[in-house]
């Protein structure tokens, strides 16, 4: 596709308003040395721009925009609504949030606005409109950045009323709502809309993540996501009144649970996100999250934030090692990013993020390792414009679904150890290790281009989903699904008639019972003559109804029953994993899946190097990154080819030390 | 005694009101196949029966009662007051509770009524009365089930006022109250009743289980138990106005801390309870809890709830293995149950208990393991009518006392690791392993029929208790008591003059000091020439005052001092355990206790099989259950005898695999 | 110096008002037997003395004072304001506190007054004045004890208003405040003083110990400490109106985080404190805390509270072993105490401290180990009057600073494992093991008398501090500082220009980056050819700017960079520890430090015995205490000398078993 920007944005969050002006010129000089071509500004300036209810003051922002424009920077202009001004809290306390405990908050922190406060809405829309009116026709304003990392819930009375309206829209009648939430259970039947109260610690909430009535709590999650999305749309529309073309985004947070990002992405011109792995996050999980962010629109995305080296808010904020930031940046690009932006360009002098790394550290000069690595990367990126807009295409899709995320983790039973992202990642990890490209897709995605679809813990099967999966399999697709799938409908009411409900016929099995294994318990499983495995977490007790067993339990009272099954259905095949296998056993069976679907890795050879591919209409771009501590041999496929970054020709017997990255460009033979 | 019911009720919670009527006929057919003869209905139907303040609608309940009557089911009719209707919360917010944190709750969950709300009381009594008026003369209504699992505290203003009234009743004068609570400590003296506030997180509470002033907090526990008991009595009395005879119960929860069940049992016609062991609960603890529930009235009880297989609200909800539910049901009967009832007959479609097992699973048909096991058990039980009403009689009593439970766990010092139920269970476990029948009795129970009384951690010795124990020993009884006994009076004020206070003379010892051992610390103990043991938790520093030492410390600065003592007093004997011994040492000394009291096991031979006995006037019924994973040989005593369940004659060399259960009936030779 | 008291006060908290009068005479007799010469009274009697708003009743207190005076006891007279009367809560609910969660508390517990409540202030000052008026000229009233263990925060509206006044005093202008707190970060700029809200869970607080804006939270800590200090001063001044001379104190709590005790000590005539180590507290930490308490005024202090044996409020309340209380008491004296007082003289009968040890136990007579040990100690102490007023003098100072305590622990990054007291104790422990006397000093202390100053984690370098340290080094002093030093100014804003900011030139290094190590991670370090060490927690990446490397990293990407450095500056030397070394490596380098500063231990020989020294103008008093479980040989230096306590002459080959204590008096050769 045509890239959204004219160059790879390389820059990041920049807050000159937090500094005296004599620093600004130093900044400009250092940005030049660092090959920085972009700055994200105005993220937290509401209190400065609007010092009181009826006064706006853009004088300083004018200067900043002018300075950056003169320096030919691409400006990512934020709307500053991510934190409320203190005066607004004082004057209109209702702009603040009421938390899960029922406590109304006073001024402080950020992401602190009640999304349903009319006062907040009025002034957030106003400021977005004023900014667009003032700066929308500046050609250096390249992107609008609305708010910041939207997140958080509010349980105030305004939200309670808005929730009732939202419910009335959805259910139309109180009877429909009672049915959807199964309110006759525990005699919760409501007769009037205003008997409904928000599900927090004072009502249905058991803990922030557990609830007595999943129906209302899942709907609240949807409502909460929608409420913030309405805030986003309101600002976007205010901008569009003055600026019809500049792309609009907000920075997302990967697998953040609070918002249904697939729904959000539809309203965004381009996805952007903030990548903050911990010191011990598996690289496969980072990779999966990039793929998810790309998958939201199946388009290239912006890396809105990463740290040049250190974070501050994690328990242990290790430094990025030499080369690590570069490798991580290329991993990001490899998976679909068209920008590399940092939080932050200059380290703040005070408040809670002062230990967060920056391109310009507290020392204030460029003679630092971090600055040098940044500058080097910036220089390299100027050569990579051709990668912008290129796509990542796989034949394998993994379904990620926020409704399932919420519903699965709200369940009471069978085990507290089932967590959604971990379950999805288990499957992703296999493909990552094999260098098989994966698309992360929504549960309603068009599956026609895929050969293999993985739907782990597809607990909630909403209307139309089973039909679509059935079509996919009937026409030759291979589907993998697992324990805790097909259980409930959109309201968290069980699909009666035997698990996995609407997937039962497709999978050719009936799951009679679901055993839970405590952490100290395992089951034994026989895969084939050669391989015994073990399993944990849950164990489905499966009856074959057309499927065949690929693995059987050899322990527990259900020894002899199938643990993993395979079913031919139409022209396709369905694999069902009834338990969580140890990795060797799991990989063996996933290889059978892969072969059934005839899925190919990017290159045939086994390697511990991460290999990713972006594709233009004519060319393939291979990204080779070694994340292993040990040096890895160059796969034979790339011997003799030229690294786009260094210009070097890759040699036989060459090894890649940790964080070494090569990009190889190859014309595609169609 | 004459059984309360005409047959062993076999059934459980049934909520047809949560289902469309076409399911009802399926239910009736399946109940028949499952040999179900009883259903507990209307547990959570308040909102349906009383859809608004002035409207009652019994039409659906009429249909349900009629249907079940036609099917000749015994109906356990609940009063539906376990969860408030939403409209009542909206109209009268004061019906809800204020929690320990001081937060007033909104509509949600269950067990959510302020017990001292006049509105709640008015409508709860009204509905109970109306139900009795309408259904009380239906012969199929076999039992009234008031509310559900009474539990929970309220800290609202209504309760605060009620608490003051309760206190005035108890103490008469403010001086008496100040003295009882030792209010001069920290200058807490109150001069007016309305200076007293409820002890929660905003006042005396340190955490839910710790307090700055145990006096007020223990009284609050008593008040809270009494407040809910008043609710129970109020409904019971409303029923009695229309139905003078049908037995009234409510379902208790074993060793649940919140309510003084001995006090409650006095107001109940029959005890019923809900048995939900976790996957790793020791069977001896389950057994003890049954004995406690039987002990509340020293009469047979109802098993109101158990799951046919799986639970949902525990961390890890394992399946019951084949035969386990049957064995567990017979264990229940063996210890005194006259009914076997399940939660639930049909699995709910939604809300938080949808993963709780049921006789009819989500699949909806009878071809399930769980259904088959249920049906088989139902069939067997029809043959066991003769066991109903028979008693369990032991010569050993263990004292369980809710005042002690509360007081001991409120103490600040000497160690946080002292927990009441664990302490009681340690003693019970010995007798369980020996197949010695035990009665769990209240602290005011008549002890004349017992040879051995165990009073572990009898921390609070209320008025009359020491006298009664002294009588018991003087007339030849054997008493065991332990560290942390005899410390305080009913107000948690210390019995001055040396531990164990009023038990000092009886035990023939003076405990000068009480050492606390951290988890990593142990003491060494010498039992006799042969056996050295170790001890932990606490170590009393004991001086003999007439007693002899059975074990002495051999480590720490109190090496040489007694750890366990024996005292001849009157015609009896008192054993005192001054520390928590390892199991071998403990068992050795308990055997000395047993021999002193001449306590006999049910059969002489050692066996890992649980053997329990119920007795009619003429016959003994032996229950043999193997809970061990390994098969166990049949004790010789039972060779050649007939299993009442299978009719088979038990053979020599026969072994009982896990969960195998036999019942042997034998005429008693008086 | 001249001692504050005429004899070593030996006694403790005594609450006859909690007992019937017939007990009082028993008390008097037993105190005599226990050689008790002092009693602390009236600590929690407010409700008794002032039973209602306009009524005071001193009749009982008169009796108590008279009785104690007759017995010639030194009376430590408390003002009783540590817990509010219930009637005051009822009449003026605003006297109570609002907690960190924003919940306003009702009557209960203690230390429960809002420090900024005018009602509280009025009546607290009134009672202090009345007590002084009544008892101030009684010669037996030897000391005033204001309130009790001042502690805790309040977040009510009164405090919020007082906070704004405090801030206006400090910052004068709102611009200065915005700058100090770096309020442009996250757009927190305030325009009016009343936009400022207290930093709790409803505003800037992340958890009780973490905050989004350290600036406001540190100022709140200062304000909170000052608010309570104002309460103290208000009572003191009320006393001074009637009693101009009797020393005034309040009991402190060692390294308690909440109050800036150096600031408090300036207002106190003598420091007193409560020493409650846990069963596993290192003796070096106890020792350090004594030195800190002495350091507050660099004068002898009172041990206001210790337990004769057992505590009650710790998780595991072990008994003090025979001799342990004596040894611990002498350790206290050795480090500067002129009194030994117990909580408590008689064990309370009820409420939460009834399991706290006492001289008179619940048994009520003197035939207890604890009583005997107390009496023996009391007798010994009568011989030690000459030690009173003597000093402890060291050439080594360790800086302890509450601002640093608060600021360091509020930081977000680089690791959550940095805790202030542990860091200080690491350095103290080295000197303790070497029997080198240490003074714990404030960050503004006069350093001219010291040869060695240790400033661990001197994170916040306030105005003037760097200058003073520079003077100290320039004139020949040796300074040790560490990672996380020199980072911020008084407002928690970073000293820009490279870490360690104002200490950079002094240390001759630049710290480019600060790595954080997770608990499972270590770095390798080379000290010299012989010794390899390891390090953890944090690792500074150091560039030498004049300093030399004493240790270098040999692992991680910064292998080869310095880990510990030494810099000659002026006539002095600066050591910088850039990482937390294992103990062997640490001790080796600290020995180099010690030798550089020519610091001498009290005696040359290595010994595991704690040796401390107090000095009069003419004599040295050596305290030898063996805290090790194993007996330790007497150091040769003391052979032939006389133990002041027993009169015995110490012999060659003599060993000291655990808790053995000797005091040796020696004339000093000047």
Automatic annotation (TrEMBL), chains A, B, C:
<dbReference type="GO" id="GO:0009341">
    <property type="term" value="C:beta-galactosidase complex"/>
</dbReference>
<feature type="binding site">
    <location>
        <position position="148"/>
    </location>
    <ligand>
        <name>substrate</name>
    </ligand>
</feature>
<dbReference type="InterPro" id="IPR013780">
    <property type="entry name" value="Glyco_hydro_b"/>
</dbReference>
<feature type="active site" description="Nucleophile">
    <location>
        <position position="305"/>
    </location>
</feature>
<dbReference type="Pfam" id="PF08533">
    <property type="entry name" value="Glyco_hydro_42C"/>
</dbReference>
<feature type="binding site">
    <location>
        <position position="114"/>
    </location>
    <ligand>
        <name>Zn(2+)</name>
    </ligand>
</feature>
<dbReference type="InterPro" id="IPR029062">
    <property type="entry name" value="Class_I_gatase-like"/>
</dbReference>
<feature type="binding site">
    <location>
        <position position="156"/>
    </location>
    <ligand>
        <name>Zn(2+)</name>
    </ligand>
</feature>
<keyword id="KW-0479">Metal-binding</keyword>
<keyword id="KW-0862">Zinc</keyword>
<keyword id="KW-0326">Glycosidase</keyword>
<protein>
    <recommendedName>
        <fullName>Beta-galactosidase</fullName>
        <ecNumber>3.2.1.23</ecNumber>
    </recommendedName>
</protein>
<comment type="similarity">
    <text>Belongs to the glycosyl hydrolase 42 family.</text>
</comment>
<feature type="domain" description="Beta-galactosidase trimerisation">
    <location>
        <begin position="395"/>
        <end position="599"/>
    </location>
</feature>
<feature type="domain" description="Beta-galactosidase C-terminal">
    <location>
        <begin position="609"/>
        <end position="658"/>
    </location>
</feature>
<dbReference type="InterPro" id="IPR013738">
    <property type="entry name" value="Beta_galactosidase_Trimer"/>
</dbReference>
<dbReference type="InterPro" id="IPR017853">
    <property type="entry name" value="GH"/>
</dbReference>
<dbReference type="InterPro" id="IPR013529">
    <property type="entry name" value="Glyco_hydro_42_N"/>
</dbReference>
<dbReference type="GO" id="GO:0046872">
    <property type="term" value="F:metal ion binding"/>
</dbReference>
<dbReference type="Pfam" id="PF02449">
    <property type="entry name" value="Glyco_hydro_42"/>
</dbReference>
<keyword id="KW-0378">Hydrolase</keyword>
<feature type="binding site">
    <location>
        <position position="110"/>
    </location>
    <ligand>
        <name>substrate</name>
    </ligand>
</feature>
<feature type="active site" description="Proton donor">
    <location>
        <position position="149"/>
    </location>
</feature>
<feature type="binding site">
    <location>
        <position position="159"/>
    </location>
    <ligand>
        <name>Zn(2+)</name>
    </ligand>
</feature>
<feature type="binding site">
    <location>
        <position position="313"/>
    </location>
    <ligand>
        <name>substrate</name>
    </ligand>
</feature>
<dbReference type="InterPro" id="IPR003476">
    <property type="entry name" value="Glyco_hydro_42"/>
</dbReference>
<dbReference type="InterPro" id="IPR013739">
    <property type="entry name" value="Beta_galactosidase_C"/>
</dbReference>
<dbReference type="GO" id="GO:0004565">
    <property type="term" value="F:beta-galactosidase activity"/>
</dbReference>
<dbReference type="GO" id="GO:0006012">
    <property type="term" value="P:galactose metabolic process"/>
</dbReference>
<dbReference type="Pfam" id="PF08532">
    <property type="entry name" value="Glyco_hydro_42M"/>
</dbReference>
<feature type="binding site">
    <location>
        <position position="154"/>
    </location>
    <ligand>
        <name>Zn(2+)</name>
    </ligand>
</feature>
<feature type="domain" description="Glycoside hydrolase family 42 N-terminal">
    <location>
        <begin position="13"/>
        <end position="383"/>
    </location>
</feature>
């Amino acid at each position: 596709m045509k890239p959204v920007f004219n160059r790879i944005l390389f820059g990041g969050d920049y807050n000159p308003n937090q500094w005296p002006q004599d620093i600004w010129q130093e900044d400009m000089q250092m940005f030049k040395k660092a090959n920085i071509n972009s700055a994200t500004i105005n993220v937290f300036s509401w209190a400065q721009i609007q010092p009181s209810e009826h006064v706006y003051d853009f004088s300083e922002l004018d200067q900043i925009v002018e300075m950056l424009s003169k320096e030919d920077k691409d400006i990512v202009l934020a709307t500053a609504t991510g934190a409320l001004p203190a005066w607004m809290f004082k004057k209109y306390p209702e702009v603040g949030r009421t938390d899960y405990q029922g406590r109304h908050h006073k001024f402080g922190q950020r992401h602190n606005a009640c999304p349903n406060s009319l006062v907040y809405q009025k002034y957030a829309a106003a400021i977005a409109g004023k900014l667009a009116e003032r700066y929308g026709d500046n050609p250096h304003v390249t992107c609008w950045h609305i708010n910041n990392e939207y997140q958080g819930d509010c349980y105030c009375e305004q939200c309670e009323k808005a929730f009732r309206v939202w419910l009335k829209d959805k259910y139309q009648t109180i009877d429909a709502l009672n049915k959807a939430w199964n309110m006759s259970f525990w005699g919760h039947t409501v007769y009037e809309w205003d008997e409904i109260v928000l599900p927090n610690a004072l009502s249905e909430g058991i803990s922030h993540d557990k609830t007595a009535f999943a129906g209302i709590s899942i709907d609240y999650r949807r409502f909460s996501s929608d409420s913030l999305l309405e805030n986003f749309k309101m600002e976007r529309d205010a901008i569009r009144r003055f600026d019809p073309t500049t792309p609009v985004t907000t920075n997302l947070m990967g697998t953040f649970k609070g918002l249904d990002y697939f729904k959000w992405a539809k309203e965004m011109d381009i996805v952007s996100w903030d990548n903050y792995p911990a010191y011990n996050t598996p690289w496969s999980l980072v990779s999966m999250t990039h793929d998810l962010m790309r998958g939201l629109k199946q388009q290239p995305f912006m890396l809105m934030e990463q740290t040049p080296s250190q974070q501050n808010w994690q328990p242990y904020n290790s430094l990025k090692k030499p080369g690590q930031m570069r490798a991580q940046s290329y991993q990001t690009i490899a998976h679909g990013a068209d920008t590399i932006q940092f939080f932050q360009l200059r380290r703040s002098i005070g408040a809670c993020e002062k230990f967060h790394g920056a391109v310009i550290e507290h020392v204030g000069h460029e003679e630092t390792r971090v600055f040098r690595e940044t500058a080097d990367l910036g220089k390299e990126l100027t050569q990579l414009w051709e990668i912008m807009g290129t796509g990542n295409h796989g034949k394998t899709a993994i379904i990620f679904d926020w409704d399932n995320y919420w519903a699965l983790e709200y369940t009471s039973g069978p085990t507290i150890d089932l967590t959604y992202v971990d379950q999805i990642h288990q499957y992703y990890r296999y493909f990552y290790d094999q260098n098989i490209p994966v698309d992360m897709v929504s549960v309603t995605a068009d599956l026609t281009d895929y050969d293999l679809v993985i739907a782990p813990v597809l607990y909630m099967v909403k209307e139309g989903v089973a039909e679509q999966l059935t079509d996919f399999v009937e026409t030759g697709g291979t589907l993998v699904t697992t324990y805790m799938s097909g259980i409930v409908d959109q309201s968290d009411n069980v699909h009666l008639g035997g698990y996995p409900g609407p997937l039962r016929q497709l999978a050719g099995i009936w799951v009679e019972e679901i055993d839970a294994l405590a952490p100290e318990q395992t089951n034994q499983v026989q895969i084939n003559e050669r391989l015994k495995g073990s399993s944990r977490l849950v164990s489905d007790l499966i009856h074959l109804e057309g499927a065949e067993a690929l693995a059987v339990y050899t322990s527990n009272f259900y020894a002899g029953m199938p643990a993993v099954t395979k079913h031919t259905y139409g022209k396709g095949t369905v694999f069902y994993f009834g338990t969580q296998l140890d990795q060797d056993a799991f990989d063996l069976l996933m290889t059978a899946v892969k072969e059934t679907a005839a899925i190919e890795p990017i290159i045939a050879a086994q390697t511990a190097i991460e290999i990713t591919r972006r594709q233009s209409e004519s060319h393939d771009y291979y990204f080779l990154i070694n994340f292993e501590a040990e040096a890895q041999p160059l796969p034979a496929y790339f011997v003799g080819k030229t690294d786009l970054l260094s210009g070097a020709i890759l040699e036989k017997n060459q090894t890649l030390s940790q964080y070494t990255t090569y990009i190889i460009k190859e014309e595609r033979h169609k």
